[in-house]
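Mods, move this if it's the wrong board.
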Amino acid sequence: MLGQIAEALPALNSSVQVVQITELELFILSIEEKGHIYFQVQLILNTDYGELSSEMIGLQTSETPVDWVKWSCCLRKILYARQPRDLQWFAYQFREDSIHSRLLFSALQQITDQTRHNNRASRNNLMNQASQYINLF
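Not the wrong board. Structure tokens:
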């Protein structure tokens, strides 16, 4: 079975005061292994800090929504705020243990860790492999 990467919400460094998210992309990949179907969800955010990404691997069918587009609609509220938002605001937008929160805060953690993934190269691969692609802007 595949492992889940984004488990608990990471503690974000308080030196990052605000961030503005202008676009997000979700790639949903179906993975079949030993007769079972699992899902990988990859999130890429465009922010004023650059591109940030996170992923969750090994979600079972029982943990996934029937309609990914409908599921992703609640992510619209984090896009294009009239002003950048502080990290506490983002924390209050979703249930702490939700997939939304885990993906979001795993990506935002890259700001404080000062790590970035090369999303351009992987985006083409993700587009070819994804069973669903959702772009909110």
